[in-house]
Amino acid sequence: MVGAIRRLGTLFINGVWQLGFITRFFWLILVYSGQSFTRLHLTLRELYFSGVMSLLIILVSGLFVGLVLGLQGYETLQRYGASDSLGTLVALSLVRELGPVVAGLLFASRAGSAVTAEIGLMKVTEQLKAMDMMAVSPIARVVAPRFWGGVISMPLLAALFSAMGVFGGWLIGVVAIGVDDGAFWSQMQSAVDFRYDVLNGVIKSCVFGVAVALIAVFEGYDCVPTAEGVSRAITRTVVSSALAILALDFVMTSFMFRGQ
Amino acid sequence: MSRTTMDLWVGVFVAAGIAALLFLALKVGSISGSDIQSPYTLIARFDNIGGLKARAPVKVAGVLVGRVAEIRYDNERFQAEVVFTVDGRYKFPTDTFANILTSGLLGEQYVGLDPGGEDKLLAPGDVIKKTQSAVVLEKLISQFMFNKAAEGDTAPAK
Amino acid sequence: MSEPLVRLENVRFAYGERTILRDISLSIPRGQVVAIMGGSGSGKTTLLRLIGGQERAVGGRVTVDGQDVAGLGRDALYALRRRMGMLFQFGALFTDMTVFDNVAFPLREHTDLPPELINDLVMMKLHAVGLRGAARLMPGELSGGMARRVALARTIALDPMLLMYDEPFTGLDPISLGIIGQLIRRLNDALGASSVIVTHDIQESLQIVDYIYFISEGRVVAEGTPDAIRNSTDPFVHQFVHAEADGPVPFHYPAGDYATALVGGAG
Prior knowledge:
The structure holds three protein chains of three kinds.
Chain A: H1 2-31, H2 34-38, H3 40-51, H4 55-79, H5 86-124, H6 127-133, H7 138-177, H8 181-191, H9 194-222, H10 227-256
Chain B: H1 3-28, H2 32-35, E1 40-46, E2 57-60, E3 63-74, E4 79-86, E5 97-102, E6 109-114, E7 127-128, E8 130-132, H3 137-157
Parallel strand pairs in B: 1-7, 2-6, 5-8
Antiparallel strand pairs in B: 1-4, 2-3, 3-4, 5-6
Chain C: E1 6-15, E2 18-28, E3 33-37, H1 44-51, E4 59-64, E5 67-68, H2 74-81, E6 84-87, H3 99-110, H4 115-128, H5 144-155, E7 162-166, H6 174-191, E8 194-199, H7 202-208, E9 211-216, E10 219-224, H8 226-230, H9 235-241, H10 258-266
Parallel strand pairs in C: 3-8, 3-9, 6-7, 7-8
Antiparallel strand pairs in C: 1-2, 1-4, 4-5, 9-10
Helix pairs in contact in C: 3-4, 3-5, 4-5, 6-7
């Protein structure tokens, strides 16, 4: 019993310690971000690896999610004779929730894990130490560009995911099932508000981008420099990113869409 | 992968992302800031607003002219105070009537304005005096039952 | 001889509870190649990290070129490190860049030289290690010995005053090993630098260095010139030089009485 309480206490203290560490790391990244923008090609390279390389999976998944939403939405809506609202249902679910969340989860497993692996391997092979010994800050040269690459990619990928999803919903609803094209778009437009729905969705994806990118670079930088340590760090990146995305989503949704 | 090819792909990616954002903003959603131009606010007080919510539409003759900005409770008059913004292109006489209506039987509630015949127009920040509260279904039903009961009472007396 | 380039005075170092270095005093004179030897896990690499300022000593002083390393701020430390070069155990080449870009890395980071000049400098450094032809290869395509030579070219890119080698001979075939050894000596003399080699390869070191320190259990246990070391009667040095399994460095990890353990285990 005492042992259990003690373990819980240790766990709690470790958690707080870790939180402080990651916050300090975040601060360091911000301080050393200058180079990421003065030497833009460093960040562009990471934008390529985290953004462009995730493009395919994001577009394909977005399309399928849209198709499923179209099918399921139509199934439910036509029972109430409200199949004209299919566009609204597809667009609102994508723009508010599914776009940022699913794109975030995919991004964490596709790009976040790759960033962790890359930084982790650089640590294992002493490349980070070597850089530090060459009087080049690894945080400025390696960590910050990867962080910003992720932060910039995420909202763009989420927007592409949502757009692709709406297209998928349209394909099923209008092209395949035969919902009225005009009703699909006009109902959607009157129900989806730019500031309230679209912008809040974009804000969500930006926050997820910061969270996933920070977790990915942190886990890589902090990993135990062995093969096993790197593989554990990658797992932690995916798991903690997923948890962070879902928890942050809940918090933000409760702030943004309270329905007054 | 050479630098220039990579730059090209990054360019394509960023352009596609921005295009998707524009698509969401313009085609999927509607920019609420743009369809209401140079807005001004009006205030109306209701005894009961029913299920009216902020951002609910304000319509005149079925045309969207504005949106509800804020709903608060006036502790002195014991009434609900509804603040809404209206497109600056539309002007209304001072004896305009404000109703809270429901679109369809179970649809969302909105503010409907019925312009009167006065020559003087409502200025920004003015209060619409003539209002009609939301129809509360429960009240309606209980009223109906009450009337029926009253009819039932009088019928045997006949 | 003037003031030595690097001087360690009564340095003590510990990772938490675990004491690595107890009391180390040594100096590296300018222009010389000094080897620090000791068994695996004797804290040799930690010594290099103390000199490079990547770790801070718990007690004592580490001075490089008259500056107290532990007392330097980040900028001053980075300024000092630009004049140091460190060769890591497995080269630590940046795997996402070509050999050329690896060697050019410190030049591009720390100077504003035009591309043509950088090109010339990189080719000169690569030529010095005999790998000018490998400039376009990726690190993954190099053998262990070649990778270490490329890393060496990168280490000397900024013409450092102090060169540090962490186990430069580990895992190399005899030919590569000889090449690296000769390079270390030649580059040191050509650059007018000073070098520290941390190693346990006694035979190779004896041929190229000017002075040797032996470290065991966190202390300097023996020191001397190669000739002195060869003829040393010190039991520790003798064990090390002649690679004997048992001696002052025991074969057995400290344990209880063997017979008792066996009998006790049976009963």
